[in-house]
Amino acid sequence: MASNKSRAFFSNSGWMMAQQIYSMLLSLVVGALSARYLGPSNYGLINYGASIISFFTIISRLGMDSVIINEMLKAPEKQGTYLGSALVLRLLTSIASVFMVMGIIRVIEPGNIELYIVTLLQSIAIIMQTYEVLTYWFQMELKMKFVSIATMIALTVVAVWRVSLLAAKASVYYFAFSYSIQYFVCGAVVLFFFQRERNKNIKLKFNWLDGKCLLLNSYHFIISGIAVTFYMQIDKIMIGKMMDHTSVGIYTAATTVAALWEFVPTALINSAGPIIMKKRQKDYDGYIRLFEELLLAVTILFVVVSIAMMLLGKIAVLILYGKNYLDAVYPLSILIWSTGFAIIGTARGIWIVAEGYNKYTKYMVFVGAGVNLVLNFFFIQWWGIVGAAVTTLISQIVVSLIAPLFWKKTRGFVKIYFESFKRFPDFVDTIKRTISR
């Protein structure tokens, strides 16, 4: 039984990593070619609008990512109503979010018709992403293979679309519509696989009481998600307002390269999450052991990757974006470390949900958001996009490891994190045994 679970875990992780590698390769080729074609100014224009949209993408997700999985594990017989209720709630929120995005653009950038159109075309993706609710079921069942296949199909369609745009020398508006197309295709394929793979007893239906239950358990994550997005995206918005779209484009290039490696720890966390939470119900010591092993693994990964990127960052920027984006090298060498601390924060979410400390998530993130806003205001004026990168790094450290110390119940995470280093000898032995085979 245990071996079957292990095989399912590694197969699940393997498919997600394969999908992310495929996505990364397409980004390296098609994404970089698009950025070169658009130039820092238009590339910055698209990402300036995307930064504003990201706030409402988080709102539309309703913070249900981990909560709905946990609820379905506790009450398998209610999977259909949990999924159906979440789909309806998310669709309604997504539609409202699009209107709110466009209203904000009209307020903060009056008369900027180009930005308005670009943002409108991108914001349609918020509605298209409603299908993500179904991916929670695949994640819980360790069947992310099908979501990975759907994503790769969608990425391929969009890659062909973008290459066609490059050949036709199309305007920035067509590039802005790319993400909406991607999520539409991915959603259609995920729905097909869900209908094929689900237990026939699982029937999607809306139930207000179950939807209310999900909202009551997840509203902490909605608030914290907004705050996370705030301190992850406010730098681009402030750069756009305090500097220009070209600077946003260069800074976005740095953040994109810095995030290329995240697919590996994200796949591990998404696959390990349901297993660790289920372990919590039967074996507390085993649950802590698994969680510490996960924390140690993602920490080792981020240190190795960060050092490598500091050494090879300039080459990566030149290959991907060209000389026009060389100013991205310095912020990249700082941002790569911030992604590592962000991953630690993501892994912490498993422990937060399993222990029932959901409400503390928003408090910790608010601390980081406050630090980010204040530091960005000064650092961007003093050091430009490098200052924004420094602010992001400090904010991520605060949220992941310092803010938990402010509350008695969450201090346990910091202890668990540093206790995980004691497992390093076992980790090395495991690597040695694997190599010797």
Summarize the structure in words.
This protein is mostly helical and 437 residues long. It has one domain (2-436). 85% of the residues lie in helices and 0% in strands. The protein contains 17 helices and no strands. It starts with a helix and ends with a helix. The model has no long low-confidence stretch (mean pLDDT 84).
Layout of strands and helices, then pairs:
Layout: H1 2-61, H2 65-74, H3 79-108, H4 113-128, H5 132-140, H6 144-168, H7 172-176, H8 178-197, H9 208-242, H10 245-258, H11 263-280, H12 284-320, H13 329-355, H14 358-383, H15 385-402, H16 411-419, H17 424-436
Helix pairs in contact: 1-3, 1-4, 1-6, 1-9, 1-10, 1-11, 2-5, 2-11, 3-4, 3-9, 4-8, 5-8, 6-8, 9-10, 9-14, 9-15, 10-12, 10-13, 11-12, 11-13, 12-13, 13-15, 14-15
